[in-house]
């Protein structure tokens, strides 16, 4: 089982990755995380919405209320140009980190 601590520092990058695909809301993104991870990982609600707040305050995402015809209204999130740049920078850091860790644990 994968340690949540290993992923925790990359929550923002994970969320930005999904928002690069298009606007979405918290539950839908978390569902995709669960699906892609084969059920091995998902964000708890507090972590998810804390990350959305942090990303919004940094100017990496914006949000708006959806216009659903039935059920509860959903807050949708959209990535900004600054968010796209931050995502690309975070990927570079991830690549360098994962190469270094691979060297350290497999050498």
Q: How would you describe this protein?
A:
This protein is mainly alpha-helical. It has one domain (4-106): Arc Repressor Mutant, subunit A. The chain is 61% helix and 11% strand. Strands 1-3-2 form a 3-stranded antiparallel β-sheet. The radius of gyration is 15 Å and the shape is globular.
Distinctive features:
107 residues, 3-stranded antiparallel β-sheet, single chain, mainly alpha
Question: What's the topology here?
Answer:
Elements: H1 4-8, H2 11-20, E1 24-25, H3 26-36, H4 45-57, E2 61-65, E3 75-79, H5 81-106
Helix pairs in contact: 2-5
Tally of structural domains: 1
Give the low-confidence spans: none
Q: CATH topology, anyone?
A: Arc Repressor Mutant, subunit A
- What is the C-alpha radius of gyration, as a whole number of Å? 15 Å
Share of helix among residues? 55-70%
- The helix/strand series, from N terminus to C terminus, equals HHEHHEEH
CATH homologous superfamily caption: Winged helix-like DNA-binding domain superfamily/Winged helix DNA-binding domain
Overall outline: globular
Per DSSP, the total helix count is: 5
Summarize the structure.
With 107 residues, this protein is mainly α.
């Amino acid at each position: 089982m994968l340690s949540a601590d290993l992923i925790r520092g990359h929550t923002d990058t994970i969320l930005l990755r999904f928002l690069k695909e298009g606007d979405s809301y918290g539950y839908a993104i978390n569902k995709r995380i669960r699906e892609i991870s084969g059920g091995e990982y998902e964000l708890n609600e507090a972590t998810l919405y804390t990350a959305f707040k942090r990303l919004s305050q940094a100017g990496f995402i914006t949000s708006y209320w959806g216009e659903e015809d039935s059920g509860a209204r959903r807050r949708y999130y959209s990535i900004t140009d600054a968010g796209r740049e931050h995502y690309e920078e975070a990927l570079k850091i991830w690549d360098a980190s994962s190469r270094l860790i691979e060297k350290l644990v497999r050498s």
